[in-house]
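Hi Y.,

Following your request, here is the sequence exactly as I used it, all 258 residues.
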Amino acid sequence: MVDRALPVFLINLDRCPERLQRAGEMLERAGIGFTRVPAADGRFLDPDRDAHCDQVACRRLLGRPMSAGEFGCYLSHLEAARQVLLSGAPHGLVFEDDITVGPEFKQALEALLDRPELASSRCDVVHLGPDRLKYFTRLGSCGEGHALVAAHYFPMTTRALLWSRAGARRFIEAHARVRLPVDFFLREEMVRSGRGLAVWPPLVRPGDSESTIEAGRSSRAAGEKRWNYGFLKRKRLLTNRLRAVARKLTLRLGLWSF
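Below is the corresponding structure, written out as tokens. Let me know if you'd prefer a different format.
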């Protein structure tokens, strides 16, 4: 069912064929076919000079610049979202290549796709591999031992995202230029809109090695933090947590639903 109805995309750098092989073999064992999406390689990108990257906005919002690896990761997910739209399917699944999935993944994914919330116009994306979860509301079961939740404080990392067609379109159209790393952007957007869901415990876990798609993420950022970096971080965390609590309350009171 999953292979026929759900397009699956795996983001992978050209210079990392061994990661493609490992992830591909793992997905094959789980009964999941996929299409490879070549990742944008940060080693060949200069976000300071690229017209598609707004470093002024990134410094204003985060107190630091975007690294080349982060810029490449964003562009890679943008291309994967375009592939979801081009598929014509109602949903599309996007993996990074640093993943671990078990043999039960396909059955749990099919249970997830049967959830009524995924047919809602208010569902943009489901995070299948959160490292942690805060401020959420349980919506129901999606396979043995897993629950679908409204992720009011959308998880960071982007190793496994199940996009709705409308959500992929909104992601593509939400920016004229890249202003934030993709995981920061998704948290900000999903906290504001309330359209982000997640599975807990995660269906997808990190692989044995660090992601190469956004390699070099922290080295430059650490060296170029502005004087107000700490203040902006605390402000961002507090604002998003307050929004998450408010969204959780509106869902509990029946003022918001999927």
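The longest helix spans residues 229-252.

Thanks again,
Q.
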